[in-house]
Amino acid sequence: MATRPDTVERILAALPPEARTRRMFGEYGLYLGDRFIGCVCDEQLFVKITRGSRPFLDESHDAPPYPGASPSLCVPEARWRDTAWLAALVTAVAADVPAKKPKGPSRKGAAS
Length: 112
Hints:
The protein is of the alpha+beta class. It has a single domain (5-83), classed as Yope Regulator, Chain: A (2-Layer Sandwich), CATH 3.30.1460. The protein has two helices and six strands. The chain has helices at 5-14, 83-96, and strands at residues 19-24, 27-32, 35-41, 44-47, 62-63, 72-75. A hairpin with a 2-residue loop joins strand 1 (19-24) and strand 2 (27-32).
């Protein structure tokens, strides 16, 4: 089941202001600043499993966001309302995820 836009808006409202989503693979990628930290799939919030995120949720919350994906932490919907807890979780994940590498110069039109 595809995630409804109002679900994404509700999740974003609970996250720090620098959080944003981007449509990807029919669902939504979740970013904190320029760091990809998780996704919203099938009406559920998933964040990457990192050293910083593990204290927030144990292995019983590990689940793939979509078939064939690596496991992520599935954040229970009841925790979405706890904005302080959710902000701490996504901030911890973002701190463990490397920043996006800047794109190099375009090779388009380069002489061979």
